[in-house]
Specification:
This protein has 455 residues and is of the alpha/beta class. The chain has 19 helices and 14 strands. The relative contact order is 0.08.
Amino acid sequence: MRIAVIGTGYVGLVSGVCFSEYGFRVTCIDNDGDKIAKLQQEIMPIFEPGLEALVAKNRKAGRLSFSTDLAQAVREADAVLIAVGTPADAITGLPDLAYLHAAVEEVAHAIDHYVLVVIKSTVPVGTNRHVAQMIANIAPDADFDVASNPEFLREGVAIEDFMSPDRIVAGVDSRRAKDGMTRLYEPVALNGAQMFFTTYESAEVIKYAANSLLAARIAFIDEIADFCEKTGANIRDVSKGVGMDQRIGNHFLKPGPGYGGSCFPKDTLALKSMARDAGAPISIVEAAISSNDTRKIRMAEKIIAAARGDVRGKTIAILGLTFKPGTDDMREAASLVIVPKLIETGASIRAYDPQGMKEAAKLIPGNVTWCKDAYEAMQGADALVILTEWNEFRSLDLQKVRGLLKTPLVVDLRNIYKRQDMMRHGFHYVSVGRQDVIPGQPWIADLNIDDEKAA
């Protein structure tokens, strides 16, 4: 089975490379000639652990190629996967389908044999049915089927997610499409993944509902963390106690500075708009969006409050800029709100991120010094702020940190450190949903709490 993947963004590139790893012959297509030229030199446009090695391996094996010739790739393919971007419209929040429609039109003109057209792009309800009609109108004699195949890849572990997914959702409208999707994903299913077949519309809603529910969980636990701070509870214990309920589970119950990335912000906005247009507004999703927007501003205010209410003329060291560890993705990252707010209120920033600084430098204007490592960022700073929980930040030499900082203030918005350790090293330690540690102030540190022993 030969596969053509249109779009070499995050979803398309990872999917195409992983299909080639399963033995399929895959051509990844993009109209960006520079990007394709770099991929042919095995230069990755994104950072994803393990991706570069898989590209090299499968290109060497002759199973993976990159091209700008969409028509030729479609003529040689049994399945065409469309994974182009569907960015949110700035006004409505709905996905902009211009790239999708352009790709579908080119595919329709190129079809000269039976092809299964698989839509992996995140699209509004009704899009797959519209795509099928669009192809039929452009090429009345074309022999094809359309399938909806939403993706659920997590950045940083996308290869693992593709190879061993929780489920494979396929929206189909014919037996032939179902059989084609079964063939396409047979190696993945044999690896233990469950295939779930449904209608176009249900598959489209599954994608939005899943991401919006996860976003709502994050917004909820963020607000519970604020409540814990006001009442003396410990959010790590609360999260653990809640997550032990099998009806709830422990995923997405860690508080932080708000969700970001390419999916949650875009998909919640889209679901909000679609639901209102359908006359069935989803107030929970709307509340999650509002809560998350407010969250990022409140975290900037939290940092300022920790610095005695004024950061004018002060230097703040920022560790982590990407929306999560394991990626270079800066889309909707909390840092894009928090750092400019600190600069606006008079702070100077010294920042470091293992992968995101190149993109961050384009997006964050103002008084920022970009540093080569975490310790350089701390040099002479009045406060250290942890925004993204990269593993290399979890085991900093606290004695060295104490010596580098002008003022021993650490604001940990990811709760990656034990309060006892921070107290022992003399830090004023501010975390999320837990009591602050202030040198010389009484604080109970010997409770038999798993969170403090394994944080």
